Amino acid sequence: MDLETKNDPFTSTIERLTERFTSIEDQLADLGQRSTPVVEPGYMIGVDLMGPFPRSAKQNEHLVTVDYCSKWVELFPLRKAKAPQITRILVEEIFTR
To answer: Three-state SS string across the chain, please?
Structure first.
C-alpha cells in the first residue's frame, strides 16, 4: 500500500467495514447458519400445504412434497387439510418408500 492510499479515509473505511462484515459472517457460521448437505434421495424432504384454491368437484387444497436431492415433486389433493389425513399420506406414500 503506498502512502496516498494508506492515508485515504475512503480506503481505511472500506478496510474497517470489510473486517467488520467478515467478523459477522464468521459469527453466523458459528451459529450454524450453513446449508445442510443433501447426500442422497430421501435425505431431506420439504412438505407444504397449498390452498385453498377455487372449489372443484372434490378437492380444493393440496399437500406438496419435494425431495431436495432429486427435485422430485408430488402433489396430493385434499378435501380438507386435517392432521389425520396429512399424517396418513406422509406415512403411507412418502416415509415408507
So the answer is: CCHHHHCCHHHHHHHHHHHHHHHHHHHHHHCCCCCCCCCCCCCCEEEEEECCCCCCCCCCEEEEEEECCCCCEEEEEECCCCHHHHHHHHHHHHHCC
Q: From first to last of its 97 residues, what are the pLDDT tens digits of the chain?
A: 444 555 666 677 777 777 766 666 666 666 665 677 778 888 889 999 987 777 666 767 889 999 988 889 999 988 888 899 999 999 999 888 7
Three cell numbers written together for 79: 378435501
State the pTM of this model: 0.57
Contact yes or no for 67/38 (Cβ under 8 A):
no
Q: Which amino acid is at 67?
A: D
Nine-digit cell at 56? 372443484
